Amino acid sequence: MSQKNTCSAWYLYIIRCANSHLYTGITTDISRRFAEHQAGGAKSAKYLKGKGPLTLVYTEQLTDRSAALKREIVIKKHSRQQKLLLIEQYQLNCYSER
């Protein structure tokens, strides 16, 4: 009997559309999911279709799906200004680590 891998990390991500709208989602594979959104195919979020080019502006690793869903709810309740501040702090941290 095979056991499902329950140790995979989950990620929360924020995408900026060409019109500056922000989209928040969760996934286990950011590269794959972002490519799906960019392709605009059947697996892309309806919200993002026709709003490209898209830019991945924020990622956050979480321990499991439950934690990712809870964090997604928190982020989606943030005001636009709060999300922009979160993105700005994230990008500053990324650039300072280089």
Overview of the molecule:
- It holds the Pfam family GIY-YIG.
- Belongs to the UPF0213 family.
- By secondary structure, this protein is of the alpha+beta class.
- The chain has one domain: GIY-YIG endonuclease (3-Layer(aba) Sandwich).
- Helix content is 41%, strand content 21%.
- It contains 3 helices and 3 strands; from the N terminus they run ββαβαα.
- It has helices at residues 30-39, 65-77, 80-96, and strands at 10-16, 22-27, 55-62.
- The chain has a 3-stranded antiparallel β-sheet, sandwiched between helices.
- Strand 1 and strand 2 (22-27) form a beta hairpin.
- The longest helix is centred in the C-terminal third of the chain and has 17 residues, at 80-96.
- The radius of gyration is 14 Å and the shape is globular.
- The N and C termini lie far apart (45 Å).
- 11% of the residues are buried.
- The model has no long low-confidence stretch (mean pLDDT 89).
